[in-house]
Specification:
The structure is a single chain. Helices cover about 40% and strands about 20% of the residues. The protein has helices at about 5-15, 20-30, 35-40, 50-90, 105-120, 135-140, 170-180, 220-235, 285-290, 310-315, 330-335, and strands at about 125, 130-135, 165, 185-195, 205-215, 240-245, 250-260, 275-285, 300-310. It has a 7-stranded mixed β-sheet with strand order 1-4-5-9-8-7-6, sandwiched between helices. A two-stranded antiparallel ribbon has the order 2-3. The mean pLDDT is about 95. Bound molecules: phenylalanine. The site of phenylalanine has 11 residues, from strand 8 and strand 9.
Length: about 350
């Protein structure tokens, strides 16, 4: 056996190995079970006795030499593979990033969501009625009778003799009570329309109506809920105050004031020195309205309230002109990015 010849064959074979698969084949061919080295080893039986030792040593030397060659090649290929991967996955961290202009919710939308969240936590469900209403739902069944002076409390956009743009979300009360029997606990958010326009009024604005009908509902329930509401929206210290008022669909009716969250009630420009700010109207649902919806007013009573969403947003964010909320001036709207 000529060792140098054998080595030359191995080397020539290894020379052409280019990847891990070919290297594995090389190993199988020479170093694996039944491979060339093994065959050499088996040849020992044909070797004369006195040469067996030297032969064995020579084969062993070849084996170790081939293994070392293999190991070296493997290290080299592994290194190449890693470098190739680095090259392929290379990221240039110095490249300028592409900026995407992200928008944000309109302040009225987030205000509405925030208000709904507070009441949802008290178990209210949502109902949305149509923006075009008929006289019956918007007025008559809410006890705002034809030719009654209270009709003039709201300047109505009439579409036909009977159809109109709803002037408030209160017709939602009628629609809910027509569909469901007590216990009822529902919110009606939506756009409303009145022919009115100045710094604090807009012909289109939004309200959040609340209606609760059950046994033994009182003004205390109304004030308790609204107390929680103003605390969540304005400040932990905020309190409410009820003042007598008039709405045809509630009896008694109240205007609800919140203690001034800017001065804490001492009196400032926001509360015009009174310590209180008017935030909404409400009351105990007039028995006539319950009866108009087939609900027995001797068994059940209800509370209702209507909150102007723009008004709350203006107070909370210190916006002095309602028009700002409808102009879609991007610079103005950007300020409300969460
Ligand atoms: N609908 C009344 C308004 O728009 C508000 C209100 C709602 C008052 C529910 C009492 C009860 O002014």
């Amino acid at each position: 056996m000529n060792m140098d010849e054998i080595k030359a064959v191995y080397l020539a074979d290894l020379e052409v190995v280019e990847d891990a698969k070919q290297l594995a084949d090389f190993w199988t061919k020479y170093l694996g079970k039944g491979g060339e080295v093994q065959k050499l080893m088996n040849g020992i039986k044909n070797v004369p006795k006195e040469e067996k030792k030297a032969y064995g040593q020579a084969v062993n030397e070849i084996k170790n030499w081939a293994q070392a060659l293999y190991d070296e090649k493997k290290t080299e290929l592994d290194k190449q593979a890693i470098l190739a991967r680095y090259e392929e996955e290379k990221v240039d961290v110095t490249l300028p990033v592409k900026t995407v202009a992200a928008g944000n919710l309109h302040p009225l939308t987030s205000m509405k969501n925030e208000m709904i969240n507070v009441f949802a936590g008290m178990g209210f469900e949502i109902f949305e009625g149509p923006e075009i209403e008929d006289d019956d739902h918007n007025f008559t069944r809410l006890n705002v009778l034809k030719d009654h002076p209270s009709r003039d409390m709201q300047d109505t956009f009439w579409l036909t003799e009977d159809l109109l743009l709803r002037t408030h979300t209160s017709p939602g009360q009628i629609r809910v009570m027509d569909m469901e029997k007590p216990p009822i606990k529902v919110l009606v958010p939506g756009k409303v329309f009145r022919s009115d326009s100045d710094a604090t009024h807009s012909p289109m604005f939004s309200q959040l109506e609340g209606l609760v009908v059950d046994k033994h509902i009182t003004l205390c329930d109304l004030q308790g809920m609204l107390d929680q509401f103003v605390k969540a929206i304005f400040s932990d210290e905020a309190k409410t105050r009820l003042r007598p008022s008039y709405f045809p669909f509630t009896e008694p009716s109240v205007e609800v004031d919140v203690s001034c969250f800017k001065c804490g009630g001492k009196g400032c420009s926001l509360c015009k020195g009174t310590g209180w700010i008017e935030v909404l109207g409400g009351g105990i649902v007039n028995n006539k309205v319950l009866e108009n919806c087939g609900i027995d007013s001797s068994k059940y009573s209800g509370l209702a309230f209507g909150i102007g969403i723009e008004r709350i947003a203006m107070l909370k964010y210190g916006i002095n002109h309602m028009g700002k909320l409808f102009e879609n001036d991007i610079e103005f709207l950007k300020q409300f990015k969460a």
